[in-house]
């Protein structure tokens, strides 16, 4: 399973994600319900840190952030295999 798929699942699934945006070395994700986010499951080997505030979860994944965010976006849009 790819990091993108695991992160989507840990964020409460596609129905809990409003928006995904790569921001420099992190992935900024707006969610509907923070309670649905499994923070422990977000801590993959590629994830350096997780910051939560309001409806936003920021996943710090370093240089891999852009590629992971792009793959997450394609999965959520139905354009990539899971």
From TrEMBL:
Q: Which InterPro entries match?
A: Glu_permease_IIB, PTrfase_EIIB_Cys, PTS_Glucose_EIICBA, PTS_IIB_1
- Cellular component terms, GO, for this chain's entry? plasma membrane
Top-level taxon: Bacteria
* Active site: residue positions: 23 (phosphocysteine intermediate)
Any one Gene Ontology MF annotation carried by this entry is:
kinase activity
Q: Where is the PTS EIIB type-1 domain?
A: 1-82
Q: What is this protein called?
A: Glucose-like phosphotransferase system IIB component
């Amino acid at each position: 399973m790819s990091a993108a798929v695991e992160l989507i699942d840990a964020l409460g699934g596609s129905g809990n994600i409003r928006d995904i945006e790569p921001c420099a070395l992190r992935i900024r994700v707006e969610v509907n319900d923070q309670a649905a986010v499994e923070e422990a499951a977000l801590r993959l080997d590629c994830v350096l840190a997780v910051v939560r505030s309001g409806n936003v979860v920021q996943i710090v994944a370093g240089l891999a952030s852009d590629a992971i965010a792009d793959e997450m976006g394609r999965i959520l849009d139905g354009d990539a295999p899971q």
